[in-house]
Specification:
The complex is a heterodimer. Chain A is α/β, with parallel strands linked by helices. Chain A contains 19 helices and 26 strands. In chain A, helix 9 (162-171) packs antiparallel against helix 14. Chain A is globular and about 70 Å long. By secondary structure, chain B is an alpha+beta fold. In chain B, the strands form two sheets. A five-stranded mixed β-sheet of chain B has the order 1-8-7-4-5, covered by helices on one side. Classes of the chains: A alpha/beta, B alpha+beta.
Chain lengths: 565, 139
């Protein structure tokens, strides 16, 4: 939250850096229930450079529902800091009125009711309208895609991301960086990147064997915009081979490599860059730390952790922009760059209200063309839900509960484990569940639903390991996902403790008995990072389960006791 | 984090041991090794750079890099390994650069330490925690 006082301090620190956020004005208009496309796009063009940021689309071509998290705990220096502020606290922090469109777009609480009033969000045809409008005001605006673009839907899986490649080629970004793209396998990634009509950047993408920069991914690219020499440095997701199956892209090594980032910043400054932009898939807390370690970055366009913030966060002289996920938001950042220095900015996080923003006809036609061969499969109704289905949050969402139930019943297991990924749109009560909806929360290239035995002791090791990837107080040791979702297993987590001491009171919910470290349990799960995992794809498991249920009813489950806040 | 039966059995042993073995048990051994190298001299922070990943992509082969301008020797210790000494790099007067890169095997999450003997005979130390994880799920 940038208060007036913060601005004064920033101005002093950066001599003449000034800033403004377009957030307040549309929030007021929205509160009056008079939201129009013009108001959403309203922006007094500022300075001489415009950046457009979109990230973590997860192949969502069409409008969706997306509920923001109600639990997003910050630890260490980020405790209580955005984006770790949710629901009513978030609204109070930014002065958002309850029940307003901003409440619906940016925070959790009353989601099902507000979804009825305000409708779906996103859709790349709507995004195209917004991008075109910004380009009309500033023809040489840079459009930068933060990655997680070639993953996350039925059609993306079936076409090996050709659908997203074609649609994004029409949207014409200037550069992108990467994460889930690599789970297509290094051959397919190379094929797509070589054909890409824009830059594929990643200063931290290295050759695994020689620990040298990977040639396919340049670290940065220069652009000329508004008479300003701009360097855009890419930062791919640092923990790809750990969080995702490294055997699918064994040629590559990643890591944060902040020293190399500093070298790249110095290099581009040496070549006359007047503005240095980092297009990042680090995740928000990692970007904050990196901004405090690396000097000379003006703007970090932050992705990966799916946070949507209506105002930039300032770290030193660096502004960090978080633009949400799933095509729900586009950020516009106008900058005043003079004498090789960023003097001021104006920013607006534009929520893509699908019923308010007119779809771009050309893009809508292209999207329908990409989807046409799969129309029947996509639209087949598998069941209905009378409850809200959502995923985002540090612990189980109702979609995860449903997936875990499917694993327990279809794979005849005592305990289910489901990955704590942050992608996956929501469904509102009363909605039909189509095959597309199931794939939106399960689609990946390693979907095998395994069944195995794990001892109680090993289950604790798994939970402790994943918990430390989220709650390690040093952001550089976090991977940016959420806690592994459990079915049939309850536990207590003390997030203030170090690894090995966070998890206790593990309980087999079926019997109420404490988990015995020495006993083996039948465990079903999916998304194993290990090569050679066997089992039916998770979407078949979930589809079979929903077909049997007909109508899905989920209740709030209190299976995880969170302490140490 | 999720495994086939065979891999679980194989990993279960290693990973369980990984968590429950007290890794910093070698702290005393590390201190002794450093004292032996320095002759008990004080250690300054700064003067030696240690580059290592925050989280190892593969604990069996972790790339590290040490450099200390003007140093005559740099000792590297993996404090949590059953055998902490990794290597001591000695630099002769004709060495153009006092820098070395190698890959090391880490038994689990632990601190990697580099101690350099500088040109003036003083000693400098750098350390970095490298996490070895069984893998997880990204956003």
């Amino acid at each position: 939250m940038i208060s007036r006082r913060d601005f004064l301090q920033v101005s002093m620190a950066a001599a003449s850096l000034t800033g403004a956020s377009g957030f307040g004005s549309w929030a007021r208009l929205a509160a009056q229930q008079r939201l129009t496309q013009d108001q959403l796009l309203e922006f007094e063009t500022f300075g001489n450079v415009s950046l457009i940021h979109i990230t973590d689309i997860h192949a969502q071509l069409k409008p969706i529902w997306f509920r923001e998290p109600s639990v997003n705990i910050g630890v260490g220096p980020n405790k209580g800091k955005v984006p770790h502020v949710t629901g009513a606290d978030f609204r109070r922090l930014y002065g958002i009125e309850d029940g307003s469109p901003s409440h619906y777009a940016l925070s959790s609480g009353d989601f099902s009711a507000l979804a009825q009033a305000y409708g779906k969000v996103g859709g790349l045809d709507r995004v195209a309208t917004v991008v075109k409008a910004i380009r009309a005001a500033r023809p040489d605006a840079l459009l930068l895609d933060g990655g997680d673009t070639w993953h996350g839907s039925y059609t993306c899986y079936q076409t090996q991301a050709q659908d997203m490649f074609n649609v994004m080629a029409a949207l014409k970004p200037d550069a992108m960086t990467f994460h889930w793209e690599f789970t297509l396998g290094s051959d397919r990634v190379a094929e797509l990147v070589e054909a890409l009509p824009f830059a594929a950047l990643g200063q931290n993408i290295f050759d695994a064997e020689w620990d040298e920069r990977a040639e396919l991914f340049p670290p940065y690219k220069f652009f000329e915009s508004g008479g300003v020499r701009i360097a855009v440095i890419g930062q791919a997701f640092p923990y790809m081979p750990i969080a995702n199956p490294g055997w699918m892209f064994p040629e590559y090594s990643f890591g944060i490599r902040d020293q190399h980032m500093q070298e790249m910043v110095d290099e581009v400054r040496g070549q006359g860059a007047e503005l240095v932009v980092c297009l990042s898939h680090n995740g928000f807390d990692v970007d904050k730390k990196m901004a405090s370690v690396v000097t000379g970055i003006d703007v970090i366009l932050s992705g990966h952790t799916h946070d949507a913030l209506p105002e930039p966060v300032l770290v030193g002289d660096t502004i960090i922009i978080a633009s949400g996920s799933n095509g729900k938001f586009v950020s516009r950042v106008d900058l005043d760059v003079r004498d090789g220095q960023m003097m001021g900015f104006r920013h607006k996080l534009i929520p893509i209200f699908s019923d308010v923003i007119e779809p771009d006809a050309e893009m809508a036609a292209l999207i329908d063309e990409e989807r046409a061969p799969y129309k029947a499969e996509l639209e087949e109704v598998i069941g209905t839900t009378d409850s809200l289905l959502y995923r985002r949050g540090n612990f189980n969402g109702s979609w995860d509960d449903l997936i875990c139930d499917a694993l327990l019943s279809e794979r005849d297991a005592e305990i289910a484990l489901s990955p704590g990924v942050r992608w996956g749109p929501s469904l509102t009560p009363g909605a039909e569940i189509t095959r597309e909806d199931i794939w939106n929360v399960t689609s990946m290239t390693y979907p095998e639903a395994y069944r195995t035995e794990m001892t109680g002791e090993f289950l604790k090791v798994v939970l402790e390991d994943v918990a430390d990837n989220i709650f390690n107080p040093d952001p550089y040791y976090q991977q940016g996902g959420d806690m592994v979702r459990t079915g049939g297993l309850g536990y207590r987590i003390d997030i203030s403790r170090p690894q090995g001491g966070r998890i206790s009171e593990m309980t087999l919910l079926k019997t109420g008995e404490k988990i015995d470290p020495a006993r083996s349990y039948q465990v079903a799960g999916w998304a194993s990072v290990n090569e050679g995992t066997e089992g039916p794809p998770i979407w078949d498991v979930v589809e079979a389960h929903i077909r049997k249920l007909g109508t899905v009813s989920t209740t709030t489950r209190e299976t995880v006791d969170v302490v140490g806040l | 984090m999720q495994l086939t039966r065979r891999e679980t059995l194989a990993l279960g042993l290693g990973a369980a041991a990984m968590t429950f073995l007290p890794f910093r048990v070698n702290a005393a051994a590390t201190d002794d090794l450093i004292a032996e190298f320095t002759g008990g001299a004080d250690l300054a922070e700064g003067g030696v750079d240690l580059t290592a990943p925050e989280i190892a992509e593969n604990g069996n082969t972790v790339p590290i890099d040490v450099s200390a301008p003007g140093a005559t020797a740099i000792m590297v210790l993996a404090t949590g390994n059953p055998t902490p000494p990794v290597a001591t790099f000695n630099f002769g007067p004709l060495a153009s650069e006092q820098r070395a890169s190698t890959r090391i095997r880490l038994a689990g999450t632990q601190d990697v330490v580099a101690v350099a003997k500088l040109a003036d005979g003083s000693f400098a130390k750098a350390s970095k925690t490298v996490k070895v994880t069984i893998g997880g799920c990204g956003g």
